[in-house]
Specification:
By secondary structure, the chain is an alpha/beta fold. The protein contains nine helices and 16 strands. Helix 1 (about 5-20) runs antiparallel to helix 2 (about 50-65). The model is unreliable at about 1-35 and about 410-465 (pLDDT under 50).
């Protein structure tokens, strides 16, 4: 089913996107005392989203919406999960498989259509429920050697082969930043598509990294939560498992609903703007910190409310999470190749971090390609005959392009270009051409970059000529860094 209304949402998001300006400081969360607020617990230690983070998330959504095959909310995204419980030798943080299963179930409830407010609380009208995000979670599978079986899942946390590990370590059981990488390096099993969850003890309730801020699947990628925050845990008022729900929201690219303040909020069109975090659960005195958009989203999983209040994701948030999972975690980096004429400027394009765009030209003679962009950093790769390999093996690599950079193919000897082909074997001929051109062009570049260039021709060779046959030139642009490349354009002539 295609979602109608998404076009409108896109319009709203785009409007919002262009409105991004300075994000005001929101380090202090503006606690007020007249409500049932929690002031002693730090709810979340994930870095507050900055302007560039919100812009990245919005750009991913835009791209997702313009690829209609992906906007299929009926197709569940099933995310494999690995659990690591780190207790100490006194038994602190110890969780049973039953505890972990309840946490997994709470996660699935929150992201499914059965996430409703708790009817035992006076303010909850029965039947007040959230939307279905189309995202669900299942226990990942490891083989007999404890190695992840990519994409495979098992029935529950107690099934043999479940990616569930109970570890005793007195240092990691009180995690501080110095131990984080050591712990993750020792324990992590998951790949880019897998959610690794570490249950331990730490100052905040939990933390993670946006999917553009770390390389998905790298050691650092994953979610850390306080073991006592699981459903039925000992962390009073934060023990319905919503800490993990919230951190997974970040892991899937969501900001706090108040991250950007009243001006840009969280960059999601259908969450009301919110000036600062709400730390309680007293809906009768629900705040309204920003003009327009209605009262603050205190029921949203991405606010700072007590677990009792949290039960909601919006359609816009679901879309953003699906888009981020598709791009960053399923690795949809490579766009279709765009064919351009020699001398033709490309349409302006935007790339999210790690996204790639390849342009193809038919050229005949030394060609120079120039890229320009308003914002962000990109690397440019050039190759003849085949698309770039995105490595130093390519013919021209320019790293960290600033405002404008260029790369040239150089020239080569037509004599060497038409060396005797191997039989009537086209593959062989093709390979030979690549080898020959690659060798020549690499030499040409070495000459260009060498401060004391050697003469370009040896006396025994014929002089360098323009080549006689047209050749395919591929120009690849790769967004690097953690912010999008915006309004980029490529021109080869
Ligand atoms: C609903 O609220 C009651 C009372 O606070 C609490 O005991 C119960 O655990 C809550 N239910 C869920 C599913 O969190
Ligand atoms: C190719 O063109 C560029 C830009 O005009 C020039 O700097 C370079 O020297 C040329 N290379 C050769 C080998 O002609
Ligand atoms: C063509 O050449 C390639 C590379 O030299 C070789 O692997 C392949 O077997 C050849 N094919 C035929 C049909 O000769
Ligand atoms: C995008 O770049 C082009 C030049 O490449 C420039 O003319 C245009 O004004 C830029 N657009 C924005 C919105 O910055
Ligand atoms: Zn958070």
């Amino acid at each position: 089913m295609k979602l109608p209304g998404y076009a409108l949402l896109l319009f709203a998001l785009t409007a919002c996107f262009s409105k991004i300006q300075e994000v005001s400081s929101h380090g202090s969360h503006g606690w007020q005392d007249d409500r049932d607020l929690e002031t002693t617990i730090e709810r979340c230690d994930t870095a507050e989203a900055k302007e560039a983070d919100i812009a990245t998330q919005q750009l991913v959504v835009e791209k997702f919406l313009s690829s209609p095959d992906e906007v299929d909310i009926e197709a569940n995204i099933m995310i494999p999960v690995c659990f690591y419980v780190i207790s100490d030798d006194t038994g602190k943080n110890k969780l049973s498989n039953g505890d972990l299963q309840r946490q997994l179930d709470a996660l699935n409830t929150a992201y499914g259509s059965s996430s409703c407010c708790n009817t035992t609380l006076s303010w909850c009208a029965p039947g007040t429920c959230s939307i279905k995000t189309g995202i669900q979670f299942a226990v990942a599978k490891v083989n007999a050697n404890g190695v992840l079986v990519p994409g495979a899942t098992v029935r529950d946390v107690s099934t043999s082969g479940a990616c569930v590990f109970h570890v005793v370590n007195n240092v990691w059981a009180y995690l501080d930043s110095g131990d984080e990488m050591e712990m993750k390096t020792a324990l992590k099993k998951g790949d880019a598509k897998t959610l690794d969850v570490y249950f331990t003890d730490l100052r905040a309730l939990g933390f993670t990294f946006y999917p553009w801020a770390v390389t998905p699947g790298s050691i650092k990628d994953g979610v850390v939560v306080k073991a006592s925050s699981i459903p039925g845990g000992t962390n009073t008022r934060y023990n319905e498992g919503d800490t993990l729900v919230h951190e997974v929201g970040h892991w899937l690219g969501l900001s706090h609903t108040f991250s950007g303040g009243c001006d840009i909020s969280d960059g999601i069109a259908d969450t009301p703007p919110q000036g600062n975090a709400y730390g309680g659960c007293s809906p009768a005195t629900r705040p309204d910190t920003c003009p327009g958009g209605g009262p603050d989203p205190i029921f949203n999983f991405m606010d700072y409310s007590l677990d009792a209040c949290m039960y909601e994701f919006t359609l816009g948030q679901a879309l953003a999470m699906r888009a981020c999972y598709t791009y960053f975690r399923r690795g949809r980096w490579e766009n279709d190749i765009i064919d351009l004429q020699f001398g033709e400027q490309s349409d302006p394009f935007n790339l999210i971090p790690r996204e790639r765009q390849v342009f193809r030209y038919m050229i005949q003679g030394n060609t120079t390609c120039t890229i320009s962009a308003n914002e962000g950093n990109a690397d440019m790769y050039m190759n003849l005959l085949s698309p770039p390999s995105w490595s130093s093996a390519d013919l021209c690599v320019k790293s960290n392009l600033g405002s404008a950079e260029s790369c040239s193919t150089g020239a080569f000897s037509a004599n060497e270009f038409v060396q005797e082909p191997t039989k009537e074997n086209e593959t062989g001929l093709f390979r030979l051409l690549i080898r020959t051109l690659a060798g020549l062009l690499r030499r040409a570049f070495a000459d260009v970059e060498d401060p004391a260039p050697v003469p370009s021709q040896s006396p025994t060779q014929s002089p360098v000529q323009q080549w006689t046959e047209p050749v395919l030139l591929y120009v690849g642009v790769l967004a690097v860094g953690s912010t999008p490349v915006q309004n980029a354009s490529v021109l080869c002539k």
